[in-house]
Write a sequence for this structure.
């Protein structure tokens, strides 16, 4: 039940949606699946005067481009992504990440664009009972961060909980962003500002139109793991997504991409861990060393009742396991060629 | 802008829009403000109270309906966004007084106790069986992960779905 009135406009094309946003100004928000925005409106964390609905815009199914890249429309529902044969065959990591989100109802509704552009979360911010103590914190223009009262007003430790973003970062995806002035391209990592107060770098009248992933090289493997308590319908405790490419000898790492989700204000890369892997022979000791370095440099924020210590330990273990998964997939793939 | 700011709230008055919905095969026209959710429209305007609203934040699944065949949580769906769409609710599963095979299996396997989760469970399970007529236990668990039940402990529900898909013999001969 949303208690305040708002206007609702339907855009027939992405260009029209952007034009409407530009005309309506700050008070308007895009509505895709609504699974992130509507709960936030219900809790009055967002109170847009107008929603510009994207539901009338035709959504192209994922397709392979001439150069072998795969283009995914930002309006693709997560369930369609998970089921698309092209994705299952060419980008199984992305299918696994989409399948990890929420419940099947959430995946039937939520889009990949909305997943990347979701608000950051924090137990204090997202509490929803009227009887709880809930004066506005910094993120809502208030005077204090109640869970972390020593934080300054420019620091908000809300966490970006997307499961899909880490997978797309490990896949080095690029984005097509439509603004009033035309289309620009950006790497997926540039979408996130790193600030919990305003987690995205999108301008007020910009729309994420598509996500493109370049073809996978040879001797390449992936690993993905979302840690949860119950194993279903839950935001992540942490998300590890890794991609490894091997040299022709099948033992030395040519390139490593590690992305961690649900641990900071933005999905993170792990540059130290990556540089420990690239150029070295991947034996178990090396993987453990890299995972330990990755957990340390991530410096996870305590969130949703999990302590920093718990999350660091979790990352150490699951980063190692996802690296092992990626390594064995890269080796299998070599065997297949 | 907070709820304590009446001026800002007053400025947000939005007119109602007329929406056509095909509810369980019958076209209905309703006038809704954009803020009205599909579950509110189904219960209060269409008058079908089988669909339940509980958490109203997408976490319990009690409000699950099939919207153009997709299982969605109707508490996070705006009714204005459903213009021209087909909605199936738990009332649409029966053929007159006759229950569907899935509903019969729910009764037989003790999948219903207080019954609050049942309409949502039935709709999620119906969507699953339409896509995958012979799901295994794990697939059923995954498909029902968005439907919470505080009474049955879930096993009866999963057994019922297995039975309805003809994979186990009926319990009573
Ligand atoms: C019960 C529940 C469980 C959930 N569990 C998870 C989970 O486990 N993992 C997870 O990652 N998420 C989870 N979510 C969050 C959310 O459902 C998903 O992230 C979903 O993919 C959001 O997509 P949407 O299309 O519904 O977004 P919307 O709610 O429509 O939009 C979210 C935000 O993105 C903006 N936006 C949407 N599309 C675009 C676009 N194309 N360009 C620019 N801006 C855009 C909107 O303006 C809005 O601010 C959960 C939500 C619920 C209710
Ligand atoms: S961490 Fe951010 S969202 Fe959470 S209470 Fe502090 S300021 Fe608010
Ligand atoms: S009432 Fe809709 S999911 Fe709980
Ligand atoms: S039967 Fe009571 S909640 Fe499921």
């Amino acid at each position: 039940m949303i208690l305040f009135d708002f206007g609702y406009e339907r855009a027939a094309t992405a260009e029209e949606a952007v034009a409407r946003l530009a005309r309506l100004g700050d008070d308007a928000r895009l509505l895709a699946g609504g699974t992130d925005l509507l709960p936030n409106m219900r809790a009055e964390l967002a109170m847009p005067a107008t929603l510009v609905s994207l539901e009338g815009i035709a959504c192209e199914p994922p397709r392979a481009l001439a150069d072998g890249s795969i283009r995914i429309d930002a309006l693709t529902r997560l369930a369609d992504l998970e089921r698309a044969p092209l994705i299952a065959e060419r980008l199984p990591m992305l299918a696994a990440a989409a399948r990890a989100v929420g419940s099947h109802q959430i995946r039937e509704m939520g889009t990949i664009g909305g997943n990347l552009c979701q608000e950051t979360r924090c137990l204090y911010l997202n509490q929803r009972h009227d009887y709880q103590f809930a004066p506005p914190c910094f993120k809502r223009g208030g005077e204090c961060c109640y869970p972390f009262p020593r934080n300054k007003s420019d620091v908000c430790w809300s966490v970006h909980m997307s499961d899909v973003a880490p997978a797309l970062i490990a896949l080095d995806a690029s984005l097509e962003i439509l603004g009033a002035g035309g289309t620009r391209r950006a790497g997926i990592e540039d979408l996130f500002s790193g600030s919990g107060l305003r987690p995205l770098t999108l301008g007020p009248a910009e729309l994420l139109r598509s996500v493109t992933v370049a073809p996978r090289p040879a001797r390449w493997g992936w690993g993905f793991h979302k840690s949860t308590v119950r194993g279903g319908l839950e935001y992540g405790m942490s998300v590890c997504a890794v991609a490894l490419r091997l040299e022709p000898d099948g033992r030395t790492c040519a390139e490593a991409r590690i992305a961690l989700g649900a641990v900071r204000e933005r999905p993170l890369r792990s540059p130290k861990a990556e540089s420990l892997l690239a150029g070295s022979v991947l034996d178990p000791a090396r993987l453990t060393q890299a995972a330990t370095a990755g957990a340390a440099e991530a410096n996870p924020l305590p969130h949703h009742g999990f302590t920093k210590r718990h999350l660091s330990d979790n990352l150490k273990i699951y980063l190692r396991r996802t690296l092992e998964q990626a390594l064995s997939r890269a080796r299998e793939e070599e065997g297949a060629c | 802008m907070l709820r304590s700011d009446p001026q800002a709230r007053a400025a947000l008055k939005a007119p109602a829009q007329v929406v056509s919905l095909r509810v369980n095969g019958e076209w209905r026209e309703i006038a809704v403000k954009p803020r009205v959710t599909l579950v509110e429209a189904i219960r209060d305007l269409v008058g079908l109270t089988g669909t339940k609203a509980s958490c109203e934040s997408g976490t319990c699944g009690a409000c699950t309906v099939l919207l153009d065949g997709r299982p969605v949580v109707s508490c996070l769906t705006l009714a204005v966004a459903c213009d021209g769409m087909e909605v199936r609710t738990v009332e649409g599963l029966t053929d007159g007084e006759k229950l569907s095979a899935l509903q019969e299996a729910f009764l037989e396997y003790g999948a219903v106790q207080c019954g609050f989760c049942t309409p949502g469970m039935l709709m999620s399970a119906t969507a699953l069986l339409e896509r995958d007529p012979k799901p295994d236990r794990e697939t059923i668990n995954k498909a029902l992960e968005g439907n919470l039940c505080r009474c049955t402990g879930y096993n009866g529900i999963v057994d019922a779905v297995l039975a309805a898909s003809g994979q186990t013999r009926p319990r009573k001969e």
